[in-house]
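User: My instructor asked us to take a sequence, write out its structure as tokens, and then describe one feature of it. I'm not sure where to start. Here is the sequence I was given:
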Amino acid sequence: MKAVRIHEYGNRNVLAFEDAPMPSITSSEVLVKVVAASVNPVDWKIREGYLKEMVPYSMPVTLGWDVSGVVTEVGFDVTRFSVGDSVYSRPDIKRNGTYAEYVAIQENEVALKPLTISHNEAASLPLAGITAWEALITTAQISAGQKVLIHAGSGGVGTLAVQIAKSRGAYVIATTSGKNKALVESLGADEVIDYQTHNFAEVLSNIDVVFDTLGGDIQESSWSVLKQDGILVSIVSPPSEEKAKELNVRSAFVFIEPNAPILEELSKLVEQGKLRPVIGAEFALKDIVKAHTLSESGRTVGKIVLYVGQP
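Assistant: Let's start with the prediction itself. The structure tokens for your sequence are:
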């Protein structure tokens, strides 16, 4: 089969579109014929070697940890899926990924694909959707009427976070550039702040939940807009526990694992018309260098999808 692998850590030049061995499955796994995958920042951070202490790999390794496709083989102990099922997943990041024509995945990391969207759209959801859900629902436990600030509302995680927060009845405020304001409003944001013309920290206060997808100065400025006992949740770097205690607020850091039950919840929202994928760009798998270049630019709207093959 064809796959995109790296044989060493490095820049985009180490990405190799090449022949790779067909995965074999254990009794608890399914083999999925990949129709589409997607690109996430963690992909190129792993490629560069930034996470090698946290997640050590034996080379060569296939990148990519988002997938939508069709089950072609099931292990002896698999009970939830059959050959021919359309599924999607964010598989275990510690093993070979989804930039490939086939991928082996543990049954408990897989969910049925939403019926109302394409494989390309479904492939854009797992990693970003689980991230947004874990931050807003599991960790912040947002509820109706709360004020939620979502940074980078037009990004891969942000576009889904806006919709998930809105589905829970929150009052949603999002930051983005002016050119993406209409998009973010169409996703349900009650207020959109153009970061190029306004400093959110000067115009907001009394926020229940801040979802930090950017880190750095944005994270630091976010403390000032929280209400007492509000929470700052980051997916970039752990916010200071000392600062949170000093300000009488809460803080949390989210790094996700595979989570099929959350994928099932996302599917419900999709099929209820409350969640729609936003795809900013699509590439063939062989054009992976172009896809990584775009992701690394930080200027992506929604998600970058890789088309791999027919169902």
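For the description part of your assignment, you could build on this observation: Residues 128-253 form a domain with the Rossmann fold fold (CATH 3.40.50.720). Try explaining in your own words what that tells you about the chain.
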